[in-house]
Amino acid sequence: MNGIIEKIKNKTARNTRTNPEWVRLFEENQGIELRNISESFMGNCQYEGKSIVSYAFVLLSAIAKEKEITQGAFFLNFDREGNEILRFISGYAMPDPDNVVDILEIGEGIPGQVAKDGKMVNISEIPVDCFQISSGLGQARPSSLLVVPIKSEGKVIAVLELSSFRKFDENDTDFFETISPMVASKILQIKTNMNN
After folding, report:
1. CB 125, CB 144: distance < 8 Å
2. For residue range 107-135, what is the model confidence (pLDDT) as tens digits?
3. SS in 3 state form for the chain?
4. For residue 149, what are the β-bridge partners?
5. 56 plus 126 within the same structural domain
6. For a pLDDT cut of 70, what percent of the chain falls above it?
7. Residue 52 — pLDDT band, cuts 50, 70, 90?
């Protein structure tokens, strides 16, 4: 689907000078199409249980299939004695989940900074000594890291940290901006269900 959108974007770029009205209509419809793709994606990772850990696993697995991530982490915002922290909840293809940093202060590391600023970070030049992605066939450095704030009413309630062997592009960032409120809504629904 992303390939189709990219071809249409390229055609749009060629037609920009000749038909600005067509471009305006295309951009409006592209937003509708992105919402449809995002809603379809969210439908594929349905979860009706009462466990945020299980939902985080389902979500990361669905993102891995949809966006070719090779590793992912889901952090949830918690209140600890009046201070907000991020707590690692679930991971996808983590090399050693028992040695993952369990708690990050707001502003600590990239996920903590994303929680503080509320803005997505897309890093396309990963330092050689940063981290490796492991498989049964070996290890390699990712090409890209995307850290996504999940917001409800302007407040970051969770953070996704995703890596891939391919570079995350504008289609990817648009996708995650679109699903963020849907993911936030699901998290709040699960929290409500946990309390009932």
Report:
1. no
2. 999 999 999 999 999 988 765 665 555 55
3. CHHHHHHHHHHHHHHCCCCHHHHHHHHHHHHHHHHHHHHHHHHHCCCCCCCHHHHHHHHHHHHHHHHCCCEEEEEEEEEECCEEEEEEEEEECCCCHHHCCCEEECCCHHHHHHHHHCCCEEECCCCCCCCCEEECCEEECCCEEEEEEEEECCEEEEEEEEEECCCCCHHHHHHHHHHHHHHHHHHHHHHHHHHC
4. 159
5. yes
6. 63
7. confident
Tokens matching residue 174: 């648009």
Say if residue 57 is in the same domain as residue 38.
no
Structure tokens at 125: 């030049």
**Residues paired with 86 in a beta bridge:** 77, 104
What residues make up the domain containing 31? 1-44
- What's residue 100's pLDDT? 74
In this structure, the strands spanning 103-105 and 83-92 are antiparallel
Same domain assignment for residues 98 and 11: no
168 and 151 part of one domain = yes
Residue 177 CB neighbours (<10 A): 15
What residues contact residue 107 under an 8 Å CB cut-off, 6+ apart? Answer: 113, 115, 116
pLDDT, mean over the chain: 76
Claim to verify: residue 97 and residue 189 sit in the same structural domain: yes
Residues 149, 103: Cα–Cα separation, whole Å:
16
CB of 50 closer than 8 Å to CB of 193: yes
| Of the candidates 136, 121, 132, 138, the residue with the CA atom closest to the CA atom of residue 165 | 132
